[in-house]
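We both want to read C-alpha cells more fluently, so let's practise on a single case. Would you write everything just below, so we can both look at the same thing?
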Amino acid sequence: MPTPIISIDRVSKSFPGVRALNDVRFELLPGEVHALMGENGAGKSTLMKIMAGVYTRDSGTILYNGREVSFGNPREAQAAGVGIIHQELQLMNHLTVAQNIFIGREPRRAFGLLLDEDKLNRDAAALLAHLNLTIDPRTVVGDLTVAKQQMVEIAKSFSHNSRMLIMDEPTAALNNAEIAELFKMIRDFKSRGVGIIYISHKVDELRQISDRVTVLRDGEYVGTVPTATTKIETIISMMVGRTLTDVARDTTRKPRDEVALEVKGLNCGALVKDVSFSLKRGEILGFAGLMGAGRTEVARAVFGADRAQSGEIWVAGKKVSVRSPRDAVAVGVGYLSEDRKRFGLAVGMDVAANVVMASLWRFLSLRVFLRERAILAEAGKFVKLLRIRTPSLTQEVRLLSGGNQQKVVVAKWLARDCEVLFFDEPTRGIDVGAKAEIYKLLRELADQGKAIVMISSELPEILRMSDRIIVVCEGRITGELMPEEATQERIMQLATQRETMAA
C-alpha cells in the first residue's frame, strides 16, 4: 500500500465546555477520494481545520508524507500542499479570476513597483488550461455562476501545488449538470495522484465519487468502510447510531379552512411575475423549481426584503402593506433564509440573544434596559421545545452545529409568534439525523396551526413534506399539484415548462 498523504492517529481537541474530537483516526491515500461523514456536531469541521492549520490539536499525531507535522497556521499547511475549499467560498467578487487566484503573490515589474497584469493573466490562463477549466482569467468573479466560482477556488488552491484537497459540501449550491462537471474534475485530480477529502451530507453522492468513507459521531471515530461494498443504510446507521426509517407523508392530516396568507398578482424584479397563491393555516405548501426559478425571490418579496412593484398581500383576511421586513414581522410573517449565517443569525452573539432578537422590545425596561432573566427564561423555553443542543444559553451561535443553528432561527420566529413562516432550503447543509428533526418540527408547527411555505431543491423532500405543491419556472407559477398527483417527473416537467415553450 502506498504511503498515505496524511495519517491521523488519536487526535483530540477541546474547546471551552465542548470536547470536539476524542482519539480520532483518519488517513488519505494518493489518488483517493475519501469521504468524511457524520452528523452536524460530529467533529468533521474541527478535524478539517486541524488538517488545514486553522486549529492546533491538543494531543495525538499527524503524519504528512510520512513525517510528523504540526501546522501552526493555514499558510504553513498551504505551503506544504494542503488545499481547502470551504462551503462558503473565500473569494473577492470585485476582483478578476486571475487576481483571486494569485492574491498576495501577483507578478510585478519595474523593480517590484508595478503589477504585471499581462503576466498575471498568462499565468492564470496556463493554470486554468492545466486543470481543463474554460474560464477567462480576466472575468470578474462576481459575474460567474456559483459552480464557476467554485472552480476558481479550486484553481487558487492548486496554484500552491496542492497534494491533497479538502472539499466541504462542494455540491450544496450546484445543479445536476454542475455536479457532473465537478465530479469529472475530481476524477481528473485522482488520476494525477491528488488525494481528496470529500465532506458531504448527501449520501447518494458517495457511490458516484468516493473510494472509502470514514464516519465520525460525537467527536469520536466510528469506522472506515469501502464505498463500493457498503450499503448506504449501513453508513447512515454508523452516522446516527441508530437506524433511521423514512416516514411517509401523513395523509390523514388536513389543513384548516382559514386562509392565513393570500398573494395576488405579485411582481418584483425579473424573477417574480404575476405570482398568485394562497396558504391555509396548518398547511405545508411546497415551492418547487430549478435553481434561479424565482422561488426565493417570491419569499423575499412577500417578506419585504425586496420591494414589490405591484400586487396585493393579505394576511388572515386583511390586506396589508409590506414595504420592509419590519412590516412583515409586524403582521406575523417570518422568513428563514437559505443563508442562515448571513441573514438569519448574529453568529457572534449567544443563543439567548438570537432567540429574542426579533422580539427584543418585549424584554426592555423603560425602553432602555434589558431584562436578562426574562430573556434567558424565554430562550430556555424554546431551546427545550426545539431540542436545541447547546452547552448553555450563553454559547455563541457560531459554535453550534448547522442543524442546531437552523433551530435557533426557528426559535427566533416562534418567539415572535409568527403565524406564517417561509422556510427557504431548511435542510441545506445539515445531516440526515438533523433533517429528520427538522421534518418533525415542521409537521409539529403545522399541527399547531402555523402556515408554512417550504422552498426546497430536493424533490423527495418536497414530495414527502408538502400538503400541496406549487411549481415555479422563470418567475411564474407553472403548476399546482396535490400530493396524489405529484411525482418527480411531473414536477420537473412543470419546472422546465417555460423553457420548453421558449425552445
